[in-house]
Amino acid sequence: LSGGTLLGVGIWVTVDGQSFVDIFGAVSSSVLQVVNVSYFLIVIGAILLVIGFLGCYGAQKESKCLLMMFFSVVLIIFIAEIAAAVVVLVYTGLAETLLTAVVTPLLKEKYGADKSLTHIWNVTMMEVHCCGLSNYTDFTDSPWYKKEGTYLAPCSVRGSLPLARPHRHGCLLQGCFDQILEEIKTNAGVVGGVAAGIAALEIAAMAVSMYLYCQLDQK
Fold first, then answer.
1. CB 33 within 8 A of CB 121
2. How far, in Å, are 53, 128, 177 from residue 43 at the CA level?
3. pLDDT at 84
């Protein structure tokens, strides 16, 4: 059910991203705005659907093969999540490098040309008070910059907000990666609780599937 829900939302964002952003504008400042939300949700939803099918059908038909496949897939995902958490926590610089390699070219190619991507990033930068992924130079040579000859409004504000450095176009905000990382640290308890809950569900799923597998052996 959760896989189908995520898949449906992913398709909705792909077909009509504008209305999704209008409805969930406040949420658009989350980490998911750094990546392509629609394809991310579609991939995750499809994976959850496959896993759910393996588990439910395998349990109903008492299939040892499907139950072992279910256990193996969940175990792989569990290990991958732990590895990703270690990379983010210990190798934050590497995580930023990987994101920069993917997101920065996308901003330079499509910001100002792709209305959906442009709107999502505008909302993100206004909500998080940041500019680009690393800094304002992410928008250099973008369709917007080539057309307007200046950096976008959310990047240039006055006040006590964290700035990258003075620029001839005004005081420009620092990148979103640092700001989002700070938000995550501020809400570390919530993030840790959600991560622990997901981990507990995955461990429970593996335990139940292995129990059923062993019960079939006894039969």
1. yes
2. 16, 26, 23
3. 76
Q: Are residues 116 and 39 in the same domain?
A: no
18 CB-near residues (< 8 Å, 6+ apart): 115, 116, 119
Provide the number of structural domains found in the chain: 2
Phi (first) and psi of residue 30, to 5 degrees: -80, 175
Look at residue 166 and tell me if it is in a domain: no
Note the helical H segments in the chain: 2-15, 17-23, 37-61, 64-90, 92-110, 115-128, 143-148, 176-186, 188-218
Residues of the chain with pLDDT under 70: 16-37, 88, 91-96, 151-154, 156-173, 184, 187-188, 191, 219
Q: Is residue 10 assigned to a domain? A: yes
Same domain, 183 and 87: yes
* Residue carrying the six token digits 């006590």: 160
Residues 83-117: pLDDT tens digits?
877 776 776 666 667 777 777 888 888 888 887 77
Identify the residue whose tokens are 């130079």.
137
